[in-house]
Amino acid sequence: MDAIKANVARIRDEIARAAESSGRAAEEVTLVAVSKTVEPARIQAAFEAGIRHFGENRVQEAQEKIPLIQGPVTWHMVGHLQRNKAGHAVELFDMIQSVDTKRLAETISRRALQAGRRMDVLLEVNIGGEASKIGIPPEEIESFLEEIKDLPGIRVRGLMTIPPYDPDVEKVRPYFRRMHELFQRLKDKTSPSMDHLSMGMSNDFAVAIEEGATMVRVGTAIFGARGQ
Ligand SMILES: *Cc1c(COP(=O)(O)O)cnc(C)c1O
Q1: Cβ 219 under 6 angstroms from ligand 1
Q2: Atom 11 (ligand 1) nearest CA
Q3: Is residue 169 in a domain?
Q4: Which residue range(s) make up the domain with 32?
Q5: How many other β-carbons are positioned within 10 Å of the β-carbon of residue 30?
Q6: Is 228 a domain residue?
Q7: Atom 7 of ligand 1, residue of closest alpha carbon
Q8: Best label site of 70, 96, 135, 212, fewest CB within 10 Å?
Q9: Tens-of-pLDDT digits for all 228 residues of the chain?
Q10: Number of domains in the chain
Q11: Whose CA is nearest to atom 5 of ligand 1?
């Protein structure tokens, strides 16, 4: 548990340094602790260490764990969401970061309205064009946004991406840069209310922040390696 506290402190330092080097304050970057596979007691320890945003990637796991965490927490769905679980997701989460099809956006909107709320969402972009990854191709994001941005049950808060993995973070930097350009262009043109660019994980969050991330999703660097 002490390790979690030390990890959070170290990551906050790195976030502050990276934010400063991109001309921003540390408070302008939201740290989401990705707690998938992590048991509730250790999630609670991260909360005690000051974490207020947590990310999960499976609805069923989130259903079991979220009620057990004490305190004001903002929950993010960061994994692929099946449409038949959208109703549960709307009840459990404050933000869904993985909207990648129009039908999913429509289903979330409808379910949110039924629940009497409007759901914050991010659109997931497949910035590397990888066949193995879900996400909207960058060249389609503008028309996608036009199609869904007026759905009454969602509020599009920005973009999310998982770039191609490379142990050399400098090889990942160009993807982050392209995402930021895309985000800025959409914001200027279509959606000035978009305020979040979610990119960067344990091994590359500092570089993502240097390139303009407003939200980073960090798992391993906080909780340690996940068992399988
Ligand atoms: C697991 C996961 C993360 C965190 O990954 P780490 O490398 O453990 O920091 C971030 N984003 C998504 C979408 C994930 O599934």
Answers
A1: yes
A2: 217
A3: yes
A4: 2-223
A5: 17
A6: no
A7: 202
A8: 70
A9: 689 999 999 999 999 999 999 999 999 999 999 999 999 999 999 999 999 999 999 999 999 999 999 999 999 999 999 999 999 999 999 999 999 999 999 999 999 999 999 999 999 999 999 988 889 999 999 999 999 999 999 999 999 999 999 999 999 999 999 999 999 999 999 888 899 999 999 999 999 999 999 999 999 999 999 875
A10: 1
A11: 219
35 ligand 1 Cβ < 6 A:
no
Q: Is the CB of 36 under 6 A from ligand 1?
A: yes
Q: Which atom of ligand 1 is nearest to the CA of 202?
A: 9
Residues 6+ apart with CB under 8 A from 76: 32, 53, 54, 55, 56, 93, 94, 95, 96, 97, 217
Query: In terms of Cα–Cα distance, which of 4, 79, 93, 94 is closest to 41?
Result: 4
Helix (H, G, I), strand (E, B) or coil at 34: strand
Which amino acid type is present at position 53? H
